[in-house]
Protein backbone atom coordinates (compact mmCIF):
# COMPACT_ATOMS: atom_id res chain seq x y z
CA UNK A 1 0.00 0.00 0.00
CA UNK A 2 1.72 3.14 -1.18
CA UNK A 3 -0.76 6.00 -0.76
CA UNK A 4 -0.08 9.66 -1.40
CA UNK A 5 2.95 11.00 0.40
CA UNK A 6 4.33 7.55 1.13
CA UNK A 7 7.86 6.24 0.91
CA UNK A 8 7.57 3.67 -1.86
CA UNK A 9 11.08 2.24 -1.40
CA UNK A 10 10.07 -0.03 1.47
CA UNK A 11 7.46 -2.75 1.58
CA UNK A 12 4.86 -1.83 4.18
CA UNK A 13 3.13 -4.77 5.80
CA UNK A 14 1.26 -3.29 8.77
CA UNK A 15 -0.70 -0.26 9.87
CA UNK A 16 2.18 0.62 12.21
CA UNK A 17 4.70 0.37 9.39
CA UNK A 18 2.50 2.54 7.21
CA UNK A 19 2.28 5.20 9.90
CA UNK A 20 6.03 5.11 10.55
CA UNK A 21 6.65 5.80 6.85
CA UNK A 22 4.37 8.82 6.40
CA UNK A 23 6.18 11.50 4.46
CA UNK A 24 6.30 14.26 5.31
CA UNK A 25 6.01 13.26 8.92
CA UNK A 26 3.56 15.25 11.03
CA UNK A 27 4.98 17.63 13.67
CA UNK A 28 6.23 15.73 16.71
CA UNK A 29 3.36 16.53 19.08
CA UNK A 30 0.76 15.47 16.53
CA UNK A 31 2.85 12.47 15.50
CA UNK A 32 2.97 11.24 19.10
CA UNK A 33 -0.79 11.65 19.52
CA UNK A 34 -1.51 9.85 16.23
CA UNK A 35 0.87 7.02 17.17
CA UNK A 36 -1.00 6.54 20.45
CA UNK A 37 -4.38 6.55 18.69
CA UNK A 38 -3.23 4.06 16.04
CA UNK A 39 -1.36 1.78 18.46
CA UNK A 40 -4.31 -0.64 18.88
CA UNK A 41 -4.33 -1.10 15.09
CA UNK A 42 -0.54 -1.17 14.53
CA UNK A 43 -0.37 -4.96 14.09
CA UNK A 44 -3.10 -5.11 11.44
CA UNK A 45 -2.20 -5.64 7.78
CA UNK A 46 -1.42 -2.50 5.79
CA UNK A 47 -4.52 -3.07 3.67
CA UNK A 48 -6.55 -2.07 6.73
CA UNK A 49 -4.99 1.41 7.06
CA UNK A 50 -8.09 3.23 5.75
CA UNK A 51 -10.40 1.51 8.25
CA UNK A 52 -7.89 1.77 11.11
CA UNK A 53 -7.49 5.51 10.60
CA UNK A 54 -11.23 5.99 10.24
CA UNK A 55 -11.95 3.88 13.35
CA UNK A 56 -9.39 5.78 15.44
CA UNK A 57 -10.63 9.15 14.20
CA UNK A 58 -14.27 8.25 14.74
CA UNK A 59 -13.62 7.07 18.29
CA UNK A 60 -11.76 10.25 19.19
CA UNK A 61 -14.33 12.52 17.53
CA UNK A 62 -17.14 10.75 19.37
CA UNK A 63 -15.36 11.33 22.69
CA UNK A 64 -14.76 14.99 21.86
CA UNK A 65 -18.38 15.57 20.82
CA UNK A 66 -19.70 13.77 23.88
CA UNK A 67 -17.51 15.86 26.19
CA UNK A 68 -18.80 19.11 24.73
CA UNK A 69 -15.36 20.60 25.21
CA UNK A 70 -14.51 23.56 23.02
CA UNK A 71 -11.43 24.64 24.93
CA UNK A 72 -7.96 25.05 23.50
CA UNK A 73 -7.03 21.89 25.38
CA UNK A 74 -8.80 19.85 22.70
CA UNK A 75 -7.00 21.48 19.75
CA UNK A 76 -4.46 18.68 19.38
CA UNK A 77 -7.21 16.07 19.41
CA UNK A 78 -9.18 17.98 16.77
CA UNK A 79 -6.05 18.11 14.60
CA UNK A 80 -5.58 14.38 15.19
CA UNK A 81 -9.13 13.62 14.02
CA UNK A 82 -8.57 15.70 10.89
CA UNK A 83 -5.24 13.98 10.21
CA UNK A 84 -6.66 10.49 10.73
CA UNK A 85 -9.54 11.07 8.32
CA UNK A 86 -7.15 12.60 5.78
CA UNK A 87 -4.76 9.66 6.12
CA UNK A 88 -7.66 7.22 5.76
CA UNK A 89 -8.45 8.69 2.37
CA UNK A 90 -4.80 8.99 1.34
CA UNK A 91 -4.43 5.29 1.96
CA UNK A 92 -7.77 4.51 0.34
CA UNK A 93 -6.61 6.27 -2.83
CA UNK A 94 -4.64 3.08 -3.61
CA UNK A 95 -7.99 1.57 -4.57
CA UNK A 96 -9.84 4.37 -6.40
CA UNK A 97 -12.77 2.13 -7.31
CA UNK A 98 -13.80 2.07 -3.64
CA UNK A 99 -13.41 5.78 -2.84
CA UNK A 100 -17.11 6.61 -3.32
CA UNK A 101 -18.22 3.69 -1.16
CA UNK A 102 -15.68 4.49 1.54
CA UNK A 103 -16.60 8.19 1.54
CA UNK A 104 -20.30 7.43 1.89
CA UNK A 105 -19.65 4.94 4.68
CA UNK A 106 -17.34 7.39 6.51
CA UNK A 107 -19.90 10.18 6.24
CA UNK A 108 -22.66 7.93 7.57
CA UNK A 109 -20.52 6.74 10.49
CA UNK A 110 -19.50 10.25 11.51
CA UNK A 111 -23.04 11.60 11.16
CA UNK A 112 -24.33 8.80 13.40
CA UNK A 113 -22.04 9.63 16.32
CA UNK A 114 -24.06 10.13 19.50
CA UNK A 115 -22.33 13.40 20.27
CA UNK A 116 -23.01 14.84 16.79
CA UNK A 117 -24.74 18.19 16.49
CA UNK A 118 -28.47 17.91 16.84
CA UNK A 119 -28.29 14.68 18.82
Please describe what this structure looks like.
With 119 residues, this protein is an all-alpha fold. The protein has one domain (15-111). It contains five helices and no strands. The chain has helices spanning 15-20, 28-38, 49-67, 75-92, 99-111.
Measured distance between first and last alpha carbons: 37 Å
Using only C-alpha atoms, the radius of gyration works out to 14 Å
- Give the quaternary arrangement of the chains: single chain
Helix content: 55-70%
Count all strands and give the number.
0
Number of domains: 1
Our count of helices gives 5
Q: Spans with pLDDT under 50 lasting ≥5 residues? A: 1-7
Shape: globular
Output mean pLDDT.
Answer: 85
- β-strand percent reads under 5%
Major sheet attributes: none
Q: Give the class from helix and strand content and strand pairing.
A: mainly alpha
Order of helices and strands: HHHHH
Summarize the structure.
With 119 residues, the chain is mainly alpha-helical. The chain is built from five helices and no strands. It has one domain.
Q: What key attributes describe this structure?
A:
single chain, 119 residues, mainly alpha, 0% strand
Write the layout of secondary structure elements.
Elements: H1 15-20, H2 28-38, H3 49-67, H4 75-92, H5 99-111
